[in-house]
Backbone:
């Protein structure tokens, strides 16, 4: 474990400038590479009814980034990081090495000020460092993915690190439940016999970070078998919303799962329920909608004919003469206020979408059965590639969003205020390329401790988990 404070002189990173109301509101510069994402829409919409409904109040950001003498993570002056865990090191449990490809993550309150971190490992069949196979916690011995769990004491020191679930595949994102567990999602639909797997994949699994033995490695089959990305749970009804990040046409669907035992606590989702897909009347492809504020009432939910996709992937199945609504790159999903928000990170007409965009954020209000397009990102001349669109996001206790960048060039965690101002909070300095062609691993899994004093974030490659503390405002 290491700890570094940022106290030196600023780098070349300029202080972010306020943008207009609808253009260049998301802007950061990294040396000679400029990456910009213009968006239209009311950013404050994303914070309605949440605990993060305030603003920083003293201008955007915490100042320029300071070079890290250890070459790991640049932060603003006054901020510190600890390396909690790195791939290839020994797990404290003695079960084997820390797996690779750190991805989605969540933090849960433990006893006496402790924190439980649950961390995904998006390993495919050829993952560099697989999740160790553990008796009672392994679904498919040939699966290389899974989750690990860290317990930190009240002072942020790692007390334990162990396998939480093993034998799964491509554990990308997921989401927390109201009863304090993590739903980890397999972003694949490989069947037994593919890539050496002995069981079908493409499921959601429940993980208890405090006691993984309570949840084991049981697929929640009624929640569907498809290329899962993320989930969000309605804390009033217990309905689980799910996104599908399908890579080829027809693109993914937006789902809801109606549990037989809603809000029943750990293990209750195993009782099953109904899986349904969203149909927006008259809209076969969400990318065709480009105007922010566009609203659709009377949203329909259609039962999925075969949730297990025994013969046919769900998105190919027959949903009747009216069809079903698709969208490219459905990724992030979270609950805010009385609505669920979900993200389409980009759409490309050249790949089969109805139109181009560099990101949409949609809000579904279940009380009104109303779907609204809240934010549209780009395209804009400042955007280098569609892949520069934001990836993992979380609400910050001090107000605003924290956004993990996923694209080419230098990789950052950006903060976005409710006024649309953008600032750099962290920059990854770990070069996984060469001196001639440098490459930096993306950030993922950004989340905050229950008391809001520590931000946890992963670097995907080389797999590294950081804890960041500093003078957070608010």
Residues:
């Amino acid at each position: 474990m290491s700890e570094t404070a940022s106290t030196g002189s600023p780098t070349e990173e300029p202080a972010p400038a306020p943008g207009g109301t609808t253009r260049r509101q998301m802007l950061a510069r990294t040396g000679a590479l400029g990456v910009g994402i213009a968006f239209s829409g009311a950013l404050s919409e994303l914070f309605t009814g949440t605990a993060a409904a305030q603003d920083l109040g003293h201008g955007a950001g915490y100042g320029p980034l300071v070079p890290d003498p250890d070459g790991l993570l640049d932060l603003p002056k006054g901020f510190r990081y600890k390396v909690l865990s790195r791939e290839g090191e020994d797990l404290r449990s003695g079960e084997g090495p820390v797996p690779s490809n750190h991805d989605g993550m969540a933090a849960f309150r433990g006893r006496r000020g402790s924190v439980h971190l649950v961390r995904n490992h998006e390993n495919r069949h050829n993952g560099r460092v697989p999740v160790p196979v553990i008796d009672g916690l392994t679904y498919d011995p040939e699966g290389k993915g899974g989750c690990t769990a860290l317990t930190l004491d009240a002072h942020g020191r790692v007390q334990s690190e162990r396998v939480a679930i093993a034998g799964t595949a491509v554990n990308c994102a997921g989401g927390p439940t109201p009863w304090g567990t993590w739903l980890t999602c397999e972003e694949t639909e490989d069947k037994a016999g593919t890539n050496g797997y002995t069981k079908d994949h493409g499921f959601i699994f429940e993980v208890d970070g405090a006691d993984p033995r309570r949840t084991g490695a049981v697929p929640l089959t009624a929640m569907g078998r498809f290329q899962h990305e993320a989930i969000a749970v309605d804390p009033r009804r217990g309905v689980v919303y799910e996104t599908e990040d399908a890579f080829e046409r027809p693109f993914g669907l937006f789902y809801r799962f109606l549990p037989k035992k809603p809000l029943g606590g750990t293990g209750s989702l195993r009782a099953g329920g109904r899986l349904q897909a969203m149909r927006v009347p008259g809209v076969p492809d969400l990318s065709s909608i480009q105007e922010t504020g566009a609203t659709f009432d009377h949203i329909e939910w259609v039962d999925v004919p075969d949730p297990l996709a025994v013969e046919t992937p769900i998105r190919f199945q027959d949903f009747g003469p009216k069809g079903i609504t698709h969208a490219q790159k459905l990724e992030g999903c979270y609950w805010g206020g009385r609505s669920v928000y979900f993200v389409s990170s980009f759409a490309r007409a050249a790949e089969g979408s109805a139109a181009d965009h560099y990101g949409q954020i949609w809000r579904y209000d279940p009380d009104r059965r109303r779907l609204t397009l809240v934010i549209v990102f780009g395209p804009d001349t400042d955007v280098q590639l569609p892949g520069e669109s934001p990836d993992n996001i979380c609400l910050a206790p001090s107000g605003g969003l924290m956004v993990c960048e996923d694209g080419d060039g230098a990789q950052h965690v950006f903060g976005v205020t409710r006024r649309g101002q953008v600032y750099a909070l962290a920059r990854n300095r770990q070069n996984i390329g060469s001196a001639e062609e440098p490459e930096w691993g993306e950030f993922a899994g950004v989340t905050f401790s229950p008391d809001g004093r520590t931000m946890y974030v992963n670097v995907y490659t080389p797999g590294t988990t950081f804890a960041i503390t500093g003078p957070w405002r608010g």
Summary: The two ends are 29 Å apart (CA to CA).
